[in-house]
Amino acid sequence: MRALGRDRCLELLASVPVGRVVFSMRALPAIRPVNHLVDGDSVVIRSNLGGALASAATQGGGVVVAYEADVLDPDTHTGWTVVVTGTARLVLDPARQARYERLLHPWVDEEMNCVITIDCDLVTGYVLHDEVPAGTGA
Amino acid sequence: MRALGRDRCLELLASVPVGRVVFSMRALPAIRPVNHLVDGDSVVIRSNLGGALASAATQGGGVVVAYEADVLDPDTHTGWTVVVTGTARLVLDPARQARYERLLHPWVDEEMNCVITIDCDLVTGYVLHDEVPAGTGA
Fold it and tell me: Which residue, B5, B71, B110, B121, could crosslink B86 as a Cys pair with Cβ 3.0–4.6 Å?
């Protein structure tokens, strides 16, 4: 494994449409796949995410979550993984919300009542197998 | 989205070699991709997983984690996701440890000093798009 720099991590994250948001729900670890976009130093997702994340994120301060994406090839055992850890916040500004809703279309037919940004406070990423150039492997 | 039954979830989980273990590390949500096998009602992984999970799991009681796997097709927006939530425990019995080490080979060249089982206490899974048979989509 080889660690990747922040810029390369965000570039790889932006190169794929889906990842997984990790949060706490009723004091248990929870994870849900969602699609995303990277906007500057934020990851943007749309989700209903149960009450837990949404209500915490509404109360101004936000809530710390992790967001992970990866491309892993089961045949060659190569690929990459990127994890962003940071504060998730509901987007409440109507203009920003409308812009993200235009850019990001949920894959599932559930009601998606929240647009959420995740600050890229801590960004880590790894390439599996040193001999493979970053971003290949699938 | 359509919810899947427990047996179908475990069958799908067993059909792929990698997933992501979700735990808390220094009070922050953490996630790491690993390869796995399903053995009865447990998911088995090998990892160093930092000190956090290992030391908690060593102290007898174990620690609650989530384990997620998915197959999601970015073109058709179909696929499935399965999440297992349960207690993670270090395998300390040498015979079981040796058996799992024979069956499960880490993809990365890091030192993998732990074999960890995750009890499938709570198993949830969904198929994206009702019209698609479970398990297809990639």
Answer: B121
Residue A138 lies in a domain: no
What CATH number is given to the structural domain containing A6? 2.30.110.10
In chain B, at which residue ranges do the beta strands (DSSP E only) sit?
A: 2-3, 18-25, 28-39, 42-47, 63-73, 78-90, 114-119, 122-128
The answer to the question of residue B137 being in a domain is no
Query: Would you tell me which residues 10-69 of chain B have a C-beta closer than 8 angstroms to some C-beta of chain A?
Result: 16-18, 20, 22-24, 28-33, 64-66, 68
| B124–chain A nearest CA distance, Å | 11
Which residues in chain A are contacts of B87 at CB distance < 8 A? none
Instruction: Classify each residue of B84-98 as buried b or exposed e, where b means 16 or more C-beta atoms within 10 Å of its C-beta.
Output: bbbebbbbeeeeeee
Is the predicted pLDDT of residue A42 greater than 60, yes or no? yes
CB contact under 8 A, A28 and B77: no
Q: Alpha helix (H) ranges present in A20-110? A: 50-58, 94-103
Q: What residues in chain B have per-residue pLDDT under 70?
A: 49-61, 110-112, 130-138
DSSP assignment, residue B95? H
A111 touches chain B (CB under 8 A): no
Judge whether A128 is closer than 8 Å to chain B, CB to CB: yes
Nearest to A3 by CA among A101, A126, A85, A131: A126
Cα separation, A82 vs A71, whole angstroms: 9
ipTM, two decimals, is 0.87
